[in-house]
Amino acid sequence: MSRNIFRMILVLFFSFLMAGAVFAAPPVKIGALFSVTGPASPLGEPERNTAEMMVAEINKAGGINGRQLELIVYDTQGDATKAVQAVNKLIKDDKVVAIIGPSTTGDSMAIIPVVEKAAIPLISCAAGIKITDPVKKWVFKTAQNDVLAVMRIYKNLQKQKISRVAILTVSDGFGSSGREQLKLKAKEFGISIISDETYGPKDTDMTVQLTKIRNSNAQAVICWGTNPGPAIVARNAQQLGIKIPLYMSHGVSSRKFIDLAGDSAGGIMLPSGKVIVADQLPNSDPQKKALMSYVNKYRARYKVEGDHFGGHAWDAVMLLKNAMEKGGFAPAAIRDQLEKTKKFAGIGGTFNFSPQDHAGLNIDAFVLVKVEKGDWKLIK
Amino acid sequence: MDNFQQLFQYILTGLSNGAIYALIGFGFAIIYNSTGIINFAQGEFVMLGGMLTIFFLSVFQMPLVPAILLAIVVSTGVGILFERLAIRPLKDAQPFSLIIITIGASIFLRGAAMLIWGKDTHALPAFSSNDPLYIAGATILPQHLWILGVTVLIIIASRIFFNYSVVGKAMRACSYNPRAAGLVGINVKSMVLLSFALSSAIGSLAGIIIAPLTMTSYDVGAMLGLKGFCAVIIGGMSSGMGTVFGGLLLGLLESLGAGYISASYKDAIAFIILLLILFIRPEGLFGSKETERF
């Protein structure tokens, strides 16, 4: 008899356990597409790490309005075909309510038609201006547009009363976009480009271009490229004894550039997101709190420094969190709330979305930094 | 800064880049002349030289000189393995098939380097100081002098080796007529092996001395290899002065073209020269078909 009672208690106990599992709301699924491997892995890896870190943190703090989040990450390998397959899987099989990523402009452009058709909000972590220009109903992005970096340099030139500049751009996607923006915005800031040189992404010597620039009467040089080209430019400029200020793009705002350029990096200025100088920002900076928390948490969890790319994912997750807190978990409600986001101080800048602007940043997203004694120094 | 100084700077830049091309071209010539194969994996040995030196410097904390020597030894070992595993088993194959194999080997070496060392670019410290030297208003780095010096040394050494040493003479004999060389008792197989060892050693040395200037990564080999190939084609596949002139000429034309026409056409200039020479004078500017190649 007593054995039967014991059995009944056991059955009841387990059915309560099961009932608990059934009645608690299932986690809200968020999709993520990052190029964790492949040529764009330096972007995708910190992005994935950051997204996982942020979701774990939100869940630990009790989730959003009591609901836990579940992050489903797929690797696009920087391949547009894989990105499209993965986004279909996220939408049809996993039934996610929103998607963050992909890491590259190519992947983002490939999946935009899919998310537009499925009516799922997407927050891209890639920089290409065409992702949100023209505005697409369901697509937002967190990475800063190149043109903001151009404007930051030009503003500094204006302040120093420099009007004649030489530009030296790499002949790939990043360089030609930069060259276009540099030429487009020059007039607005009263700057004339008197020497327009290019170099190939695999070139190993730029002394010829720099000799030409030295012979023009330019007052500053702006070089637009990603590593290693700009490091070679810095070394060649030092070799040629070029004394006029040298500006680089935000494409090299990482430690790697200082390592590669060595001594010749000293004095070089470039526009950069605020992550690399987070601790030098004045306390009045609206982003300071978010930046310091990101930098410290990332270092504690992954034992390496957080970077701009991880910051793009941080912004995407936090923007989603804010939208969900206000509007609930339906894709359409998330989209509407995202569009209403105002004065959101994140890692990449202070976001103000509107129906006309899904990129949301202005020139304050960039600061100008200078290399001094082998480290970045914020220029006030 | 007047126009003369500008011209002089272009010439200096051209000559120092040209010396690099000549050194890489040398490796092509040595293998071609003893086997009739154009070794398109030559550029990968240039990459191996630079990457291995950085690997030994950073991972094993070795001083510069032992790291360089070890890098040359390891690259030479890779060259020997390459000949033993990929070239010798197909002894009776046509040179054409062997050339395809060298392309395969270059893709393999590049992929392996990417997996082992990753995709980052690395810089080697300069051998001596980083302060530019001024010559008539133009500047040159001490590292350029190292490159020029090593190129001159290699030329002299190879001249002595091929003209005065028994082994060098035996290699020449193989290049003229392998069958006859075999009949007089020269071991043709080991001469072929030796040519691969020599050319990978020279290739890696080239990769090491240019790494402080151009930096290095897993994929530098392809472009540098092609430039070296242009140099040796201009020089008529000789492993003597022809290749040196070929390399210097290529470097000069590139830098003058970039300076006075447009830097966008820098690589185009090299490859247009290559095509023109292949169409008009396939035997090279400095040779006729009958001249000796060493």
Please give the radius of gyration of chain B in angstroms: 19 Å
Q: What is the rounded distance between the termini of chain B? A: 43 Å
**Global outline of chain A:** elongated
The rounded distance between the terminal residues' Cα atoms of chain A is 83 Å
- How would you spell out the order of helices and strands of chain B? HHHHEEHHHHHHH
The structural class of chain B is mainly alpha
The chain-level structural class of chain A is alpha/beta
Most residues in contact, chain pair and counts = A-B, 33 and 33 residues
Shape of chain B: globular
Count of distinct strands of chain B: 2
| CATH H-tier superfamily of the largest domain in chain A | Response regulator
| Helical run tally of chain A | 12
β-strand amount of chain A: 15-25%
Might you state the CATH topology name of the largest domain in chain A?
Answer: Rossmann fold
Q: For the largest beta sheet of chain B, what order do the strands appear in spatially? A: 1-2
Task: State the share of residues found in helices of chain B, binned by percent.
Answer: over 70%
Task: Explain the layout of strands and helices.
The complex is a heterodimer of chains A (380) and B (294).
Chain A: H1 2-23, E1 28-34, H2 41-60, E2 69-75, H3 80-92, E3 98-100, H4 105-118, E4 122-124, E5 139-141, H5 146-159, E6 164-170, H6 173-186, E7 192-199, H7 207-215, E8 220-224, H8 229-239, E9 246-247, H9 255-261, E10 269-272, H10 288-302, H11 308-327, H12 331-339, E11 344-345, E12 350-351, E13 367-372, E14 375-378
Parallel strand pairs in A: 1-2, 1-3, 3-4, 4-5, 6-7, 6-8, 8-9
Antiparallel strand pairs in A: 10-13, 11-12, 13-14
Helix pairs in contact in A: 2-11, 3-4, 5-6, 8-9, 11-12
Chain B: H1 3-35, H2 42-59, H3 64-87, H4 95-117, E1 133-135, E2 138-140, H5 142-164, H6 166-176, H7 178-183, H8 188-214, H9 221-234, H10 241-260, H11 266-280
Helix pairs in contact in B: 1-5, 1-8, 1-9, 1-10, 2-3, 2-4, 2-8, 2-9, 3-8, 5-6, 5-8, 6-8, 9-10, 9-11, 10-11
